[in-house]
Amino acid sequence: MRIIAIGDIHMAADAVTRIPEIGSADLVIINGDLTNFGGTDDAKRVLDTVMTANPSVLAQFGNLDKPEVNDYLEDLGINLHKQARLLRHRLCLIGIGGSNKTPFATPSEFSETELAAFIEHAYEQARASIDLTEPVEKIKIPTIFVSHTPPFGTAVDRLASGTHVGSSAVLSFIEERQPALCICGHIHEAAGTDHIGRTPICNPGMLSKGGWVEITVNDTTVQATLHDRI
């Protein structure tokens, strides 16, 4: 299974057509910030472009998308926020959109308590979809955690000033559950990679700057390659 993960599109969706072999990918994940303070109409324009390149898409809203974008993705049946998706009984995706609080009062921000509750809701949904009583991370099906906001205190949540602005709730989930991979975004200047325990973290940054992640799933193995140009 080959998956392309992108985020922080901010209306510049045409760049997606330059991702090599995007049309043959099994899935495209959009990790939030489709728009710039936009709603359904802007999100539709972005999705139309991405889905022309590849119609197999799952997406979630970011903090710069209005809450109605979340509703629109839900209506389309492609929403990841607060949800778990079991793909071909080989891979589980857990999604969390929006962001923790910022100084800018962007449209879709949440407290750390709210984010933690969203993550727990998705995690419990994952357990139910796999029909297990065991923790998801103990089974053979790997989990990819798709979080618009990065985990706190890492190389991928740092502003140009050096200040860490990621989510403590996201950090706690990764520390406890150790998913096979975390895809994040939100902090454009922190594009890059890091690790929390056994979990690789990838922040591709803005799509218009060339950032995207190529994920390959073979049996129970997940491999991610961060690309910084298209």
From TrEMBL:
It holds the Pfam family Metallophos. Transmembrane segments: none annotated. Residues 1-189 form the Calcineurin-like phosphoesterase domain. It comes from the Bacteria. This is Serine/threonine protein phosphatase. It comes from Desulfofustis limnaeus.
